[in-house]
Amino acid sequence: MYMNQKSALITGAAKRIGKSIALHLAANGYGIAIHYNQSKKSALALQAELQDRYPQQKFKIFQCDLGDTNQLENFIDRVMQHFDSLTVLVNNASVFEPGRLRETSVQLLNNQLDVNLKAPFILSRDYAMNNKYGNIINLLDTRITSNNSSYAAYSLSKVALSYFTKMAALEFAPNIRVNAIALGATLAPEGMGIEYLNSLAAKTPMKITGGIEPILQSLDYILTNDNLTGQILFCDGGEQLL
Fold it and tell me: Which keywords does this Swiss-Prot/TrEMBL entry list (predicted)?
């Protein structure tokens, strides 16, 4: 039933942006490997929703602490026991903790680098070793263009991931394309409302909140443009220009 079906592994797929990407790709015929760390209830609910909507497609949940290298080392192998191949890898999951340079402990630095850089590195490496063709899409942050140090370790992890995107695009070509989407004001942090997003958007050239739709449009553009690799698409209302 699932032979030759398009499939995508999405990290952090149980909630927020990852969930929206999973719903969007499933609607376009993809089977989804739903990664989660602590959100098992949400992952199961998403799996049930997708299976109900698209009974001819495969949806599986996979738990992994992306900050644990021992779990990461065999994660792609675990996923591929259930999927013949993976058409797409979306490195969406990240941790986002404040701290200027003087305030950044070794633990904070390691936590940001482990999840935001090492995990996409290891998953992309193993994806390329196990799939002859495909797409890797990394989710970045428009902060990669700024020297603001309010989220120093987080920003540095995303800067490094942007360079990794280009390095991997060169090494994995021509059969695996690697691109990234850099986000601006997209979703308010949990516990904060639309006013928070509006205040951020007011400082950008476009002066509108991005929301999910521009991310999905960028995702579609990457997946359908076979001549695109090593690129970073900024979905930030022009914030990177400031």
Answer: Oxidoreductase
- Contact between 36 and 13 under an 8 Å Cβ cutoff? The reply is yes
Q: Each residue of 73-123: pLDDT tens digit? A: 999 999 999 999 999 999 999 999 999 999 999 999 999 999 999 999 999
Q: pTM of the entire structure?
A: 0.95
- Residue 187 banded pLDDT, cuts 50, 70, 90: confident
Q: Indicate if the alpha-carbon torsion angle 213, 83, 46, 15 is positive or negative.
A: negative
- Cα 28 from Cα 30, distance rounded (Å): 6
Q: Where are the alpha helices (DSSP H) in the chain?
A: 16-27, 40-53, 69-72, 75-80, 106-113, 119-130, 152-172, 194-201, 213-224
